[in-house]
Write a structure and sequence with these properties.
This protein is an alpha/beta fold. The chain is 40% helix and 20% strand. It is built from twelve helices and 13 strands. A seven-stranded mixed sheet has the order 1-3-2-4-5-6-12, with helices on both faces. The longest helix has 17 residues. The protein is globular.
Length: 349
């Protein structure tokens, strides 16, 4: 059972929460066991693309579901809205904290200003932000990852799998976070086979232009790279990555997924035989661990980083053609060991 001090701030009904948030994103709430009725726990506010992206946001939702199941409390997940401002995002987080949810997590770097503002207003609530390390506050956990390390391994896989000696990278938005994915991938390719050409492209300059939420943009970019002979295409583009995977399947080349194990995603089932692997980061684990720290009365704060060494970034082995390729697995394992030992320094830009 959660601490009394947290129960007392959680008395408002779910209907009140829905009303309070109606102006700043749609909300989904679910209750746990009857004996914890009115006891509110983890709430997450989604990034661009929302729930159902089969990638980043869905990974956060998996962490929320795990917390709800284990702790038997009420949770909430809130969708973004088109054209919203930092003030809209902050209102969303404040509304969740006001209703008694704790912790409250902004999924994505775009929540940085909102988390900072909400954390100042609700110092007794623990806030989390995924993919941003700039928010410094006593009640904020910055949940970040070494995406470049998993991307390096994706580069090894691509270099070992290409037959045309050309591979592609599709980034959702031209920002430092996505530069990490590209840098690691390109380095992994070149370290494995310097003769392999990497074609890199960003879909948009800003998230507002749809770089993370437009499968049609991803599909078009991938088709362009495939026309240039790319036979392995890695996408770090959120929902837009679904278009990359669709294009790869249609042209019978390999796609490499991102964030979640996209081979296992139901919405992508008809394309799964074209998904070689996915460069994963365990957003679900990070979100769940933050909820558990609050539940245990010892809230995690500060920068919390997941990497190859901690096991929170990795490559998926769901595709049997990938998992059963002994030579490929040997190359990936060797690279992984060298990254963990420090022998290989992976670039992040």
């Amino acid at each position: 059972m959660r601490r009394i001090s947290r129960i007392t701030v959680a008395g408002a009904a779910t209907a009140s929460l829905a009303l309070a948030l109606s102006a700043c994103g749609s909300t989904s709430t679910s209750s746990g066991s009857s004996e914890s009725k009115g006891d509110k726990g983890l709430a997450i506010a989604y990034d661009v693309g929302g729930k159902g992206d089969q990638s980043f946001n869905d990974a956060a939702y998996a962490g929320l579901e795990q917390a709800k199941k284990e702790f038997g409390y009420e949770t909430a997940d809130v969708e973004p809205t088109d054209g919203e401002t930092d003030a809209d995002k902050e209102q969303r987080l404040v509304s969740l904290a006001k209703q008694g949810y704790n912790p409250v997590v902004g999924v994505g770097y775009a929540y940085a200003a909102a988390v900072k503002g909400a954390a100042e207003k609700y110092p007794d609530t623990t806030f989390g932000i995924v993919d941003d390390a700039t928010v410094e506050a006593k009640n904020v956990a910055d949940l970040v990852f070494s995406e470049e390390e998993a991307s390096y391994l994706a580069g090894v896989a691509a270099a070992k799998s290409t037959e045309t000696k050309t591979v592609g990278f599709v980034g959702g938005v031209d920002i430092p976070l996505i530069h990490k994915f590209r840098a690691g991938f390109e380095q992994g390719v070149k370290d494995t086979d310097p003769k392999v050409k990497v074609i890199s492209q960003f879909l948009t300059q800003t998230a507002e232009e749809g770089g993370f939420s437009s499968p049609d943009k991803g599909k078009s970019a991938a088709e362009g790279q495939i026309e240039k002979k790319a036979d392995v295409v890695y996408a770090a583009a959120g929902l837009s990555g679904q278009g990359v995977i669709e294009a790869a399947a249609a042209n019978k080349v390999w796609a490499i997924g991102v964030d979640s194990d996209q081979y296992q995603q139901a919405a992508l089932a008809k394309y799964k035989d074209s998904i070689l692997t996915s460069a994963m980061k365990d957003v679900a684990k990070a979100v769940y661990n933050l909820a558990k720290s609050v539940e245990d009365g010892k809230p995690t704060t500060g920068i919390v980083k997941g990497d190859l060494k901690t096991g929170e970034v990795s490559l998926s082995n769901s595709n049997p053609k990938f998992a059963d390729d002994a030579e490929l697995q040997k190359a990936i394992e060797a690279a992984k060991e060298k990254i963990i030992s420090g022998e290989i320094k992976v670039k992040s830009s």
